[in-house]
Amino acid sequence: MHPGIHTKSNPGKAAYIMAATGEVVTYRELDDESNRAANLFRSLGLKPGDTIALFAENHPRYHQVLWAAQRSGLYYTAISSRLTAEEVAYIVNDSGAKVFSTTHAMADVVAKMDAVGMIPRTIKRYMMDGMIANYESWEDAVGSQPTTPITDETEGAAMLYSSGTTGRPKGVKHRLTGQPLGAPNPIGMLLAGLYQATPEMVYLSPAPLYHSAPLQFTMAIHRIGGTVIVMEHFDAEQSLALIEKYRVTHTQMVPTMFIRMLKLPEPIRRKYDHSTLRVVIHASAPCPISVKEQMIEWWGPKIYEYYAGTEGNGFCAINSVEWLLHKGSVGKPLVGKVHIVDDDGAELPTGEAGTIFFEGGGTFEYHNDPEKTKSSRNDKGWSTLGDIGYLDRDGYLYLTDRKANMIISGGVNIYPQEAENLLATHPKVEDVAVFGVPNEDFGEEVKAVVQPVDIKRAGPALEAELIGFCRAHLSAIKCPRTIDFDAELPRHPTGKLYKRLIKDRYWIGHSKRIAE
Predict the structure, then answer these.
(1) Which CATH number is associated with domain 28-181?
(2) For residue range 360-413, what is the model confidence (pLDDT) as tens digits?
(3) First vs last Cα of the chain: how many Å apart?
(4) CA-to-CA distance for 501 and 494, rounded, in angstroms?
(5) Using CA atoms, how far apart are residues 247 and 229, in angstroms rounded to an integer?
(6) Tell me: domain 406-515, CATH 3.40.220.10, correct?
(7) Alpha carbon distance 323, 335 (integer Å)
């Protein structure tokens, strides 16, 4: 299925609605505009397997560009709207994009990029909502094209870049299937099978569309024929208001969003009707057990969790009923077989934590990085995302942390996610990062940086209170020895915390000693 099919049966139905403005884009409009853009791509000489790049905020034309590339057999690289000119240029160049589309809201960034010639002039450039030097009007270019489908429609694919929390981001590339537009889509089948997706569904999308899950899920809903409510920016109370206003049936959030909603005053939480919700999906990061318990108590057993990556090498899932019997688990594998492996490559027994590998899942490569592609596999051909976890006796998977976040203190391996999850539940904590910092005697020690609910309360008293709270629930070695306070932590709208940006403050001047 695809938007063109739904245009024939229900052309006036809303394919998506922009939350802030209420702008409605129907299936007819989505189909027509994506056809126009597909014709534009063909007129520029783009053929299946070529790449386009899109650098934009959550914008009314976002899905039109995505669907144009999807129906043209192209790779499409959606770029984070929070990146700098240098970071954007790196992704555009590395992806091999032949067309770069952006919006006037991004004009300052792309102007800096162009001022020093960061991308070749051979790349065709378009801007929505206005123009600057070196850019043509997207609206004019697309408006001159016909709405008839191109004659060689074939399925394209996203090539999305890792968020770059460590080092340069890399594009995750899957082979194009060569199948005609409308061929069965794995995520669409997943939505229908696991999450009760039907053409009547209304899906609230509160995260940036350039992120893998919002992009893939919203496009899958367009295949099914549902309606997407696109939030330009996440706001805890607004999300509750939108659920009531549009009678939302499905949504996907990250644990940080749950925490923000749970910290709303009780009268606000009770003000909005959420009875239409059937399925609330979450992923992206481990969810503190107490947070999920509160969400199930508030919204009922409608909370579904999955563990997967943009790489698509495996997929685990769990519903609320299962989770209450296996608290903290991300579920059993539905795609791929899970293996827990130690640093020497040996499989570990039940209950022991090690690197999570998938056997028999989807294949992928990191674009222009054969070494990283190779390092993601072991000698058996199993692949990993670099996460640490363990299996229980019933075969349920539990995440411990990412291997890259591990703290080694006095020869003891410490995974900071446990302390981070705990501190996030404290009523005086808005956000928190836990990581390792240099220690002359032990190599590293556990450190926390906290964004307090009230920055005026930051100081030694709050530090002592939070350390005491942590030690009351966890062994002392897992808890921060000291806590610093920041007015705001560098957290991505998708929920990912840029720990590297915080850690760098503590490691500058120590990297050489550590490396030696």
Answers:
(1) 3.40.50.980
(2) 888 889 898 888 889 889 999 999 988 889 999 999 999 887 767 878 777 677
(3) 56
(4) 17
(5) 11
(6) no
(7) 19
- Phi and psi at 311, nearest 5°, equal -65, -25
Kindly report the length of the chain. 516
Query: Which string of DSSP letters, residue by residue, matches 265-305?
Result: -HHHHHHS--TT--EEEE-SSPPPHHHHHHHHHHH-S-EEE
3-class DSSP state of 55: strand
The alpha carbon torsion through 340, 344, 345, 347 (nearest 10 deg) reads -40
Q: What is the DSSP letter of 169?
A: -
- Min mean pLDDT across 21-25, 154-158, 224-228, 490-494 is at 490-494
Please determine whether the domains at 28-181 and 406-515 fall in the same fold group of CATH.
no
Question: The whole model's pTM is what?
Answer: 0.83
CA distance 143 to 50: 22
The closest of 223, 231, 182 to 199, measured between CA atoms, is 223
417-424 vs 460-471: helix crossing angle, rounded to 10 = 120
CB atoms within 10 A of CB 247: 13
Q: Give pLDDT, residue 514.
A: 31
Residue 53 DSSP SS3: strand
Minimal CA–CA distance to 230: which of 241, 213, 242?
Answer: 242
Tokens representing 221? Answer: 């809903």
Cα distance between residue 290 and residue 288, in whole Å: 6
Element (H, E) at 19: none
Between helices 417-424 and 289-299, what is the axis angle to 10°?
A: 40
Q: Pick the closest to residue 418 from 323, 333, 328, 303 (CA basis).
A: 328
Ordered by start, the domain boundaries in the chain are 28-181, 406-515
Q: Position of tokens 């991300």? A: 330
| Alpha helices (H) along 44-106 | 62-71, 85-95
Residue whose token pair is 């003891």: 412
CA dihedral sign of residues 422, 424, 408, 310: positive
